[in-house]
User: Fold these one by one.
Assistant:
Number 1:
Amino acid sequence: MAAIAAERYTGASIKRSEDPRILTGAGRYVDDIKLPGMLHAAFVRSPMAHARVLSVDVSAARALPGVVAVLTGADLEAMTVPGPDALMALMGWAGPTPEFTLLATDRVRFVGDPVAVVIAESRYLAEDGCDLVEVEYDDLPPVANASFALDPGSPPLFANLGDNIARPHARSEFGDVSAAFASADRVIDFRIDVHRHQNAPMEGRGCVASYDAGSGVMTMHAATQSVHVSRIAVAMRLGIEPDKVRVLAGDIGGSFGLKIGASREELAVAAASRAVGQPVKWVEDRGENLAASGQAREESFDVRAAVSNDGDLLGLDVKMVIDTGAYPGMGAMVPAIMEAMLPGPYKLAALGFESTAAITNKASYVAYRGPWASETFVRERVLDLIAKDLGLDPVEIRLRNAAPRTDPPAVMITGRPLVGVTTRESLERVAQLVDIPAFRRRQAEARAQGRYLGVGVATFIEAAPGPRSPEGPSGPMGMESMRLRLEEDGIVALFTGQMPHGQSHQTTLAQIAADEFGVPFEQVRVVIGDSDVVPFGLTGGSRSATMTGGVALHGARQLKAKVLDFAAHLMEASAQDLLITDGNVWVRGDPASAIAVSEVARRAASGQFGADVDAKLEVEATFDGGEGGWSGGTHCAIVDIDVETGIVKVERYVAVEDCGALINPAVVEGQIRGGVAQGIGAVLLERSAYGEDGNFQSATFMDYLMPTACDVPRIEIEHLETVPLDADVNFRGVGEGGMIVAPPTVVNAIEDALSPFGVRIYEQHLPPARILELIAAVDPGRGG
Amino acid sequence: MVDIILRINGATCTGSPEARKTLADFLREDLNLTGTHVGCEHGVCGACTVIVDGRAVRSCLMLAVQAAGSEVTTIEGLAPDGGLGPLQQAMWDSHSFQCGFCTPGFVMQAAAFLSDHPDADERQIREALAGNICRCTGYQSIIDGVLLAAERNRER
Amino acid sequence: MKLPYVEYEAPTTVAEAVGLLAEHLDQASVLAGGQSLIPLLALRLARPAVLIDINGIHELSGVSATDGRVAIGAMTREYVAEESESVADTVPLLAAALPLIGHEAIRSRGTVGGSLAHADPAAELPAVARALDAEFVVRGQSGMRVIPAAEWFEGYLTTSRRPDELLVEVRFPAAGRGTGVSFQEVTRRHGDFAIVGLAASLTLSDGAISDARLAFAGMSDVPVRAAAAEELLAGERPSTELFDEAARRATRDVDPPADLHGSSDYRKTVAAVMVRRGLRAAADNARERQ
């Protein structure tokens, strides 16, 4: 393994270079952008879940002083190109695609569906204009939830689809499912429901679109996880050549999967800016964000589990229904990932899986941090339910079922090898850290006093980026590109398509490159956020630690070799005898020979060298992930439940995680804690609520409750000694893990706390009222 | 339009906002102080927190005209010359933040709280910051930053 | 989520404010702390033609204790009342409730009068006012009126203030000797509105309850007194059995609202828990204060 010279930065919690601007209000988010002549957009949105649009009268709005234009669905259809959702197209979606318009034309399909856009001199005036737009609706019966959608009698929400089913997923079987069930000592079956909740980043969606008629260039200032995917989305829909769209992004206030490509509203704003000939800004407000930006996780699972009396999970048979909302999003693609991941790090020998995606009158199902996460919820709930039936300890049953670490590695029944997975180790370490026997004693004492404590454990893996595939990298996410350049002033510039929105890439990538190249951390600059300048990339899928960390490492190495080849000419030495440390190039054994890297760069840029000397100190590097690998771990929560009020407190939370080599421990831990907080929020607080009539009920932060500093305990994190898989790149992603495994961890703890009442939990959202209902259902004398 | 005079970050400013314009929007649009962020516009998330006449307030729940004659401090003015004050430095050292959108509100609320409660313990700090929402960090690193600032302040 | 267009007035005297209210009546909204009104405006749920900003009427702020009561000017900021020694010494139930209102930043601007004039049934101050039979002093075209709490809260976000009247002061009776208090609430998160809240006050005299006040937040469209429970408690000695029975009586005939945060049954169940806990805490507090 090639050692990194002077390994000073990688592995250390280097302070972030992002923070000086973040901490002083000097960050630049899309709503901070002001362009000359900029106008503001606001959308007229449907208050109905499902209705025909009979008429849209914009005359009064157009007449309001300060309103520059009002565009309807029909207006926008005339100025744009129909087509599929860009992200879906990019990911190779080949299934049925509803035909949709940017703004609703003849029909609205969820509360918040945009119907018209008002462009005015200020957002205040634009909203005033919206108040004056008169829309006549003819109420239609809502397809209020999945069971409505699956009813063949329900009228199709999209004319070009025969029904409200986006992806009937034919049954797949892995292993011998019928044999597994036939040989089982017991078969348990139940239904598990995960509720709708959503990303809710602190900054909503937004953009500033500016079209220059002279050059035909559309410039979009965006909040996005990929400037290139946004560029392609805008180009496709506006009928502009892709190289005439430029997407710029600065600081982004969180996303968690929401801000990918371009939403219908952003595309409408881009088209509007072209139509009015002035830049147009749209930044969604919180009501829009909650109602219309999209939601996630609403899935239900009919599960059959084949079990031995000793606690072996022999087989699973799962039928899944996912509520994808109305307009196309990636919901229909999630079941396939879930199927692949359901076996988890266990020895599961048989899996049957089928899924259906229902189209309903709700906002679209969008990617939310670990979109496939419910597979972990289902599996980890199943294990606890089995453990309870058989009287087994939750750690014991997981150790029993965990795939051992073998060479060659165990392979998931769905195909992927469990290379370097340290599930057993993380389970054992969590058990040590938590001392469950001691907890059981404390739990018993507490119960005697009428207090209900519980402990829950769950384990997971995530493909971060996943083990190397024998077929090689595939798809646009299979290879990561980076351009590295030694600038004239000695700065090592990394041009990456990554678009951090909290991931601290400007720090972590600089750490790697600084170490590999040999310059101080401050001498590396990570360039992001300009589609004219950076290669293709997308931040998401917990892959950047490996893919981008890896391309930074290898790229820096390649750049260094090039620089040393050039420096050899300057220093009349052989490149093999040259070193770069601390920003200086010098001849091994002769410190007095040192020349600053910046001087080398200056000389290269001076143009004084002939064609025989390569003075272009730039490389285009690619990286396919190397050996890749999994991240994973075990989490444990201790909860304290007030069974008179149903209030649950998470008293303690422990995470033992393995994400390979750490680039920056503080960054890794921040990602884990943030994900866990979202998981706690999902279980105790957050629900995107629709009524039976399709009405949207959680349109403000007074109803969509976000976890606060009083809801999230200190999260104790321990990292496991990693299993190195690759010669150089053993960083693995960690972005999504916390959010994937925290919900089952907390729910398992809640069920454990309530076990004296005989409660069994088959759902993920457990607000106080639900806790009391669960108790009362089993023990009618108690609870409400 | 209502003519107002107020002091922002130590400097006298004038403006003519519409009465309905919030202080948050006035700061961001009329004075180009975009450090104060807008996260919900109904007073729940705390991203818009600024200090008015010595008290932390939600600038989305004040009209600009109501700040006439007041002393307002925004994130841009917390430390002299746009540098980092001790609280900000402690937060930098503690890796307090990720995406940064909630940051100005947290910094201003924590600054106001610490100046009145320099010896607050973790529980008190968590309660004091429970009205500020962060989606990225799970709060621990923010609390650590505030605790570190308080500790360093005591050592001085 | 921008506010709709409004005319704006900023009177500096009560008389001026009353004049403006008389002129605009239902078309006007009074802007005090703004912590409740501005969100309604931002959501465009409220669309007054005129905002009458009373923050410039300095005579409306202040806490004064006179024999047997504390008078709090309507514009007194919640944080000022929270820090007031007069309030702490004389109206301990109010002192117990104030820190539970939202978060510090809300209390920096929110006012005692504003909260009570807004009359959100899930808020803390209306329950306290109802428990203590506070008095609401309003000034209108026809002069001053003093309205007892039982008549002040009329319906959801509705008070008996006439459109031309301005709430100028709220008077809370002083807690007598031997009075203990407790404010209990179940909230989803620290600082949230109560799903159910209870303002409880018990006065003990020779070990027996000489006065019992119980008022719920979140159980109806107005704060409600648990009269049947209060009657039961009068003259009795505190005991677990007594408090259990009081909890049953307090919740026997209630029909609380249902929303995203709790069903009607949930509120009913939790209300009983609040009564038990509140009475226990108030009784303990009463013994401490003797």
Number 2:
Amino acid sequence: MKEAEREGSLDPELVHQVWQEARDLIKRLEGSTVSRLAVQAGDYRIEIERSATIVAADGNAATGAGAITSGPAAKPPVEGRMPVVAPLLGTFYRSPQPGAKPFVEEGDVVDQGQPIAIVEAMKIMNQVASEHSGRVAEILVKDGDWVEFQQVLMYLEPVEA
Amino acid sequence: MFQKILIANRGEIGLRIARACRELGIKSVAVYSTPDAESAVVRFADEAVHIGPAATGRSYLHVPSIVGAALKTGADAIHPGYGFLSEDPYFAEICADSGITFIGPRPEVMERVGNKATARHLMQAAGLPLLPGTVDPVRTSDEAQDIADSIGYPVIIKAAAGGGGRGMNVAWRRDELVRTYQTTRATAMAVFKDSAVYIERYLEKARHTEVQVLCDQYGNGIYLGERDCSVQRRHQKLIEEGPSIHLDAAARKAIGEAAVRGALSVGYSSAGTMEFLLDENGQFTFMEMNARIQVEHPVTEMITSVDLIQQQIRIAANEPLAITQADVDIRGHAIECRINAEDPDNNFSPTPGRLDTYAPPGGPWTRVDSHCYPGWTVSPFYDSLIAKLIVWAPDREAAIDRMQRALAEFHISGRGVKTTIPFHQRVLAHPTFRRGEIFTNFLEQGFYQQAAS
């Protein structure tokens, strides 16, 4: 489950009530196919996005007891940051070929659809295109590291207008 | 022996293989798709790798991801289970090229027996009896008509590349032949990407009788008795039992030896199943070979005390068979019921959903092979198997009683979830089943509708 948006007033009583209501709703919706719900009271609004499947929202889906954590331990995502995840399992490369300039560096601004990395699986180079436009805030994986499906590769942050 | 085995499967068989690894002191690696992140095998295995999304083409059937996961985790072997990549010679070849042992027969052997028409050809050469029909694909509808006319009706038209009970249709009369031929070809092309079909006589009163074999890489082979899987709907097995009550010791030896001879003649190594049809007069004819472990393997394990998954692993690790034919001692009777998330009152349509209640039965000689637990969601993306319930008893009568007791103890519920438990209860309560007078057409005869009303 993913907390998508939280905004508005910070009246603690109201906040508490809205959360309570949201929690009840979530419980009641368990097993249903509802994927999105919003609870609003005054200026305070909670939007919940439920994934149809059981998977951690931050892309760190390695949940098994003995699960491998090949990447760095997942950090709680920073507000507003957008994860770019591995489209498949394989070896992560930051540049189009060995020795070449990396696709992106931290601080670069990228457009949606722009290639930002390669994930290689059995000699097939799969280009990773950015799902969003934004500034590269953090690259979590080192060149040549092995990544699992949906592992977070880097975070983008919105570029202020 | 292997150090680490990657399990290229999911569900109950994934867990079954991981358990065998644990008992053998081998580390196990589970691979999983997104909806399987909380699955039992992921929790049980020593390591787990997220390989892709729900769609099997990008996860459990995606060879680069599975081989990549094996290479990364340092697995020296891959167990494919059943379904998915278990009978894919191309996958077995890539494993070999990557220095990973595929736990199963050699790719070229798999390719030969995987094509049902080729398998018929090979088994005929090995001297196994076949039903009248073709041993080569039938190319045109005219040819099909001529062949069917000479065999006599009804005939069954089967996709050479078919499996899992799909891609076969019966033509009852001459005027149905061309249409049935064309339909089957079209299905074969759509589902198996190979339009080749072959034709054989269709036996209305036949029993699906299959022999479990184990063959090592040194040319040794043994048979471990047979299973009767005649309770089927649309060619899919629902209840399996062993041994068959329609074979005496001499007949068991004859069909068992034929099965081993056939398997060894193609250079088979691993656990495998030779499927036969047993007619009313006790005559058997070869039908097809399954080059993998089967869903119903526990039936054989219960009556022989041989762990078939462990045997597969040992054979793949180049060990010679430690069991001889003389060691195989079939004791008692075992029955397996497949508990699927399906609605038996609605044409067995799948009923996926979250299991609020999952309380399996226990008690003496009662085995449940399942990956489910309370809160687990039976996914609409994969097959609907919830659990395999297997019981053993000294004789068939007592095994049926025990199965009825265990089925009544099995509690599964969830919103929208229906199971095949009521179906099994009705079959087991039916006098025809008690008497063992079941043929593969049992369900088509409308028994179920009568019993339900």
